Amino acid sequence: MKLAPLTCHPNTPSIITAVEVEMGRPQPAVLALRYRVTDPKRALVIPPAAVGERRDDLWKRTCFEAFICIPGGEAYYELNLSPSAHWAAYRFDSFRAGMADADGIISPRLDWLKADNGFELRTLTDLSGMAGLPLDAPWRIGLTAVIEDGPDQLSYWALTHPPGVQDFHNAEGWTAEV
What we know:
By secondary structure, this protein is mostly beta strands.
């Protein structure tokens, strides 16, 4: 597993002190992620626990995301993972265009844990049903987090923030490979 820090977008400050993610592919079609949030003040707003099911609009609260590029074009997948255990997966034909539910995804395994000075979200997601993702080659991905640390107080964290306004869909920010 590779470890990478996420950085907070400069226009969305947070009292959370760090977010980092470990990433790997323990099997050719399985994406393993472990997000760690350092939160010594316990300010993180966590959605209520639920029986995990597919839900839209998870990004409006604390949510962890992965953007996965389909090689050879502009198409990509977006995976949203909530501490509540809800999840969502979308396919885009190109930058914010042609959005549709990503069919063929198996419900991810999500574990939300209290940790020293913060929290962890661990997930294993089987992406074998996602058309266009090679099983025998690395995937280029963007790893991000939406952090709610107060009422209507959102900050946006990513491996890399391209210049300008915060936009996780900008492929210039997808700098990891698994």
